[in-house]
Amino acid sequence: MLGQLPEYLNGESRILRQGQVLWASAWKSGEGNMSHRISGLEHHHFKYPIFRAPGSVHVHFFGTATLSFAAGIKTQTGDVFEIECREFGRALCNPLGQLSFAPAPVRML
């Protein structure tokens, strides 16, 4: 999202298994739900010259305190993680996959 930040954001996180909701939790985020204002965070971050490089882009990530693990959820390959917030448009959906690999022997020189 570009431009003025919303003071309050509300949404829902979900885990789907075979198209059915396995777990869901509402969340709140945005500056109005934070312990510190963005302006204060930026002040403390940018007071150090190393963080003021020309051409750099600074991105703020809002977090939330929803935890499927705390609810005892054990994910499986194929589960779909969704996070939805009306202000951002469509839900972000990420399926869980698993990579297989054969460990290569370590060669000591």
Features:
4 strands, 8% helix, 27% strand, mainly beta, flat, 109 residues, 1 helix, 4-stranded antiparallel β-sheet, single chain
Architecture blueprint of SSEs:
Blueprint: E1 9-17, E2 20-29, H1 38-46, E3 80-85, E4 92-95
Describe the structure.
- The protein is mainly beta.
- The chain has one domain (9-95).
- Helix content is 8%, strand content 27%.
- It is built from 1 helix and 4 strands, in the order E-E-H-E-E.
- It has one helix at 38-46, and strands at 9-17, 20-29, 80-85, 92-95.
- The chain has a 4-stranded antiparallel beta sheet with strand order 2-1-3-4, with no helix packed on it.
- Strand 3 (80-85) and strand 4 form a beta hairpin.
- The protein is flat, with a radius of gyration of 19 Å.
- The model has no long low-confidence stretch (mean pLDDT 87).
Q: If you average the pLDDT, what whole number results? A: 87
CA gyration radius, whole angstroms? 19 Å
Beta-strand content bin: 25-35%
**What order do the SSEs take from the amino end to the carboxyl end, as H and E?**
EEHEE
Can you summarize the main beta sheet?
4 strands, antiparallel
